[in-house]
Every structure is written in structure tokens, then in C-alpha cells.
Amino acid sequence: MTAANLVDFNAVRNRGPQVIADTDDGYTRTANAIQDQLCKADLTGAQFQVLNAIVRITYGYNQKTNRITNTYLAELTGVSEKGVRLCLAELHGRNMITLEKTGLMKIVGINKVISEWVITTGKSEKQSAKGKQSRNNGSNLRRNNGSIETEQRLPQDGTMVPDKRNCSSSTKDNSKNNLLNTTSKDLPSPPSADDKPKRIGAVVENGKQWGEQQDVDTVNAMLTSLQATLGEHYRPPNITAWANDIRVMRQQDRRQPEHILKLWRLAHKDEFWRQNIQSPAALRKQWGRLAAIYHGQRSGLNNSQTGISLGANGQPMTAADMAQLAREHGGIN
């Protein structure tokens, strides 16, 4: 009798419906030369996924380029958004794709000049050689240690000596000996008086950048408007860097936190300014123009339908007029 193979039909049924790929459902038309280069490309798994996703969203729709975001590629490939960003930079640096930033979107495509592709970076060969050298060093070390230990156990006069264990072995006695043999220079030194203390009043600090509590509160208030502007594309900024910019505006430019928030909210109500003022540094750079617009609105001299600021004579204000108005007021109230 022969042994029969038993089939678990329950397991087969639990696999779900069978999916068969068919060109009738659509296909991606790609040049054979590009596919040949992809076979030779020395890429990581994530880089290969992102590159194939770009092929799919371009040639798969009979387009040379397409507009995408990191979020869309992350959903398509399963790679994190940070990983997608790094892969795009690497692929663009190796001339395998074309990449152009347009605001929050990116225009990507495959570089058809395949002779410009950097197929390999040499990292795989270096890592392989490094691993081989490490294994050889380990083998030589074990052989050397064995010969030295044999010489110690068998002295030339033929007398036997006690077997002294290696101090690196994790036994109770050896741990005690290692602790006793430890010198003061091996221990971490206590803090000295030369160590620079944290700045007084700082609640966030990173190198030369720091901010007080009122700076952090101002940043948190500004982030509410920024989240509404960017929506799903919002990413948390560097709070310390933002707080440092707010502190500089307070201490050097003599700006009040409430005035900073007024101009920030004014900018994010305007279609043009909300695209250009997305950080305290940008707000500080455009302070004069925004302050002039703010005063024009308070004086009832701003035409809300056209977005043109009018002067006291009813004529449109130029950039020089706005700058002069900002200097006269010296800020906002």
C-alpha cells in the first residue's frame, strides 16, 4: 500500500477568492531596455518598491510623469513616508528618476536616458569584503588564542600549572575580579563646574536655539492655523527652532506675542500669503508688508474684493507706500 496525501480543504477554502492577473484588466507598457537595467540595478528592497511604484503611476497610465506625494507612495508601497523621501532622494541622485518639487506635490518620472543611470554604488561589494575580512580576523583570533593558551598550560619544564580562566568569561568570581581591577580612569567622571548650565528661563533648548514658555505657547497657537492650511500634508515642525525664532522676534525686534499671532492669522486668511508664510522665520522676513496690510484693513482702506490696498487718496498703494506706512507705525497695535 502507498501512503496517501491528505488535503486540508478547510485551509484551502480560507485562502479567499483566487485572483488571476490578466492584461485585459490593464497593463504597463515599459521599454525592454528599462526592464533590463532594472534587473541589473543594485537597489535596496524599499528603493526597488518605490521605483516600481513610479513605473506604475507613470507608464501604467501612459504618462511620462505624474504628480504624487510621499503619503501616496507610502500607501502604495507600504514603505514609511520618511523611507519614501530617502528613496526618492537616492534614486534621483543616481539619475534613475526625474524629480521636481511643486509646492506640496512632486512631479516624478523615469529617466529614459538609461546610460546616465548609476546601476551600482559599490556598497554591496564593500560590505561583502568587510564581512569576509571580519570572519577571517575572528578565525585567526580563535587560532591565536588557542595556541597561546596551550603554551601557558604546558610550560617548557614539563610542570603542570593551574588552569586560569579568561577574565572575560561571565562567572561570579571573574565579575568580582573585574570590578576590583577597574581603575578610577575607567569610571565616568562626575559633572564639573566647567559644564555649561542650561539657560535660565529656557523650557526648550538645542545647542544655540532655545525658547521660553511664552515662545512655546505662541508656537502652539500658530500650529493651529498651519494645520488648517496644510490639512493632511501637515507635519510637526521643529518646536525648538520655531520657539527660538519667536524669542528673537521678541527680544531683538521688540515684537509682542499677541502681535505676532495677529499677523500670522492674517497671513493664513489670504490665499497668497498662506502659501508663503508657513514659519516664524518667513513671518519675520515679511513683517513690514503684512503690518502695512493689517493697518490698511483697520483703516478701512483695503478693497477685500480685489486684494488691493488703497491709500488715503483712494489710489492703490505701492510697495514703497506700504513700507513707509509700516515704518510710521513701527509695528501693529
Short description:
This protein has helices at residues 9-13, 32-40, 45-58, 70-77, 81-93, 123-153, 172-181, 213-230, 239-251, 257-267, 273-276, 280-285, 287-298, 319-329, and strands spanning 65-68, 97-102, 105-110, 204-206, 209-211, 302-303, 308-309. Among the domains are: 27-116, Arc Repressor Mutant, subunit A, CATH 1.10.10.10; 204-329, no CATH class. It has 333 residues and is mainly α.
Descriptive terms for the model:
elongated; 50% helix; two-stranded antiparallel sheet; Arc Repressor Mutant, subunit A
List the helices and strands and how they pair.
Blueprint: H1 9-13, H2 32-40, H3 45-58, E1 65-68, H4 70-77, H5 81-93, E2 97-102, E3 105-110, H6 123-153, H7 172-181, E4 204-206, E5 209-211, H8 213-230, H9 239-251, H10 257-267, H11 273-276, H12 280-285, H13 287-298, E6 302-303, E7 308-309, H14 319-329
Antiparallel strand pairs: 1-3, 2-3, 4-5, 6-7
Helix pairs in contact: 3-5, 4-5, 8-9, 8-10, 13-14
